[in-house]
UniProtKB/TrEMBL annotation:
It comes from Prosthecodimorpha staleyi. Pfam families: Aminotran_5, GcvP2_C. One of its GO terms (cellular component) is glycine cleavage complex. Residues 384-481 form the Glycine dehydrogenase C-terminal domain. InterPro entries: Aminotrans_V_dom, GDC-P_C, GDC_P, PyrdxlP-dep_Trfase, PyrdxlP-dep_Trfase_major, PyrdxlP-dep_Trfase_small. Its EC number is 1.4.4.2. The keyword Oxidoreductase applies. It is an enzyme of class 1 (oxidoreductase). This is glycine dehydrogenase (aminomethyl-transferring). It catalyses: N(6)-[(R)-lipoyl]-L-lysyl-[glycine-cleavage complex H protein] + glycine + H(+) = N(6)-[(R)-S(8)-aminomethyldihydrolipoyl]-L-lysyl-[glycine-cleavage complex H protein] + CO2.
Amino acid sequence: MLNDQGRPTRPEGAAAAEGTPAATPWTFTGNRALRVEEPLIFEIGRAETTGVDLPAPDGLAPRLGRLARKAAPDLPGLTEPEAMRHYVRLSRSNYSIDTGLYPLGSCTMKHNPRLNEKMARLPGFADVHPLQPVSTVPGALDVIADLGGWLCRLTGMDAVAMSPKAGAHGELCGMMAIKAAIRARGETRNVVLVPESAHGTNPATAALIGMTVRDVPARADGTVDVEAVKALLGPDVAAIMLTNPNTCGIFEPEVAAIAEAVHAAGAYFYADGANFNAIVGKVRPGDLGVDAMHINLHKTFSTPHGGGGPGAGPVVLSSRLAPFAPLPFIHLEEGRPVLVETEAGTAPGETPFGRMTAFHGQMGMFTRALAYMLSHGTDGLRQASEDAVLAANYVRAGLADLMTLPFPDHPSMHEVLFDDGFLKETGITTLDFAKAMIDEGYHPMTMYFPLVVHGAMLIEPTESESKASLDLFVATLRDLVLSAKRGETERFTQAPRFAPRRRLDETRAARSPKLRWEKPKPWTAAEAAE
């Protein structure tokens, strides 16, 4: 039986199948050996106690006025061992790249080398503060300048804005530069072309800055037709936002022709750099006609990923957009980096569209990314891309006879896309299949995206995985597929059975989140009897 928080309250009947949680021995604590049943921190802490006692400062004169707190904060007081145990136990219930293969497509969940972490913790990087005098941080400026130089060299672009904090923030930066360039020409173009298979942030970013979004239909093979783009181009079109390789895991074969048509119409080419990991060292987007592209350092260059930050999404710009790069940025003067923080420090012809953030960026992410680049070198970065593509096609080859490929005529790039055709008439959905993967110890792949494919399952193993790791992953998915075809429906519809929590109502949780813990009311005798 589960309570309203999804926790087991007592063992279920012995009629359950052998090997399921319901049939395993009951324990007094609710723990199962190393799988500890951990309550919320508010349930184990005591608001009336604290780990540190500080005397009230003499002569304190609060300046908060009516905003001053009327009562003590209701924070849980824990001893240091209790606090450590709580968060360690929670971490063991979470999936991470350090615990297993993370096959999320379009996310590039690669291993974060520990060398990068060591470099980011060096004095002068770990403790640098954005309000320090610039004269005290020459090494930090060198790192930012070197990283920016590498990003320009790898992409074939002329300038880079380092301040954006994430991919979507970088998209905003690139599109604002495009809007500023159009205004500088005295034009009012406000239409952005976005392929149907684009990341959802693309149309959202365009709409955010007041642009009108116009869809570009995908061909039956998942790619964008240059003739379809030409048919939509006109004097009102400001830009196209195209991902390459696209979100179906396919390299756009007509990307150069699309760029040529867009430029001929007076518009700009924005490339979503989410999938840059597939082509680093192989293709320079600038050579394809790209004018702006954000780069997810956490995806392509292995800085930590997830949890809402910290992030970094630098934007590389062509010569057509370089004059509009936002403040702050770095100039090289006599070979030394100089931080330009105001318009007064800009060179003739530079007209920054403004400032996106208070400071220059996220130093820890910059240090990690540069450490990754320098430890790999140009040949190593190229090999990482080749290995990522090889891994995706290895998974594809191992599953193509059992799982259905919506675009079988195109080789995969760094990710392989399947649809739910192989589940037809089994009574099992894409969601069911993904939940069953949790029982097998894997985080599910990206589901239901891209939207142009029904029941999409997008797998990106990255270059981090060994052949043995990929073989076990493929064998596991093959076993699940065969189980589904044999009609073993409960293995899927009841999954996950072995996770700390069973299947939750994720839609309801997203629409009606409980953001504040409330002390539960005492149970009545009738409720306790249940």
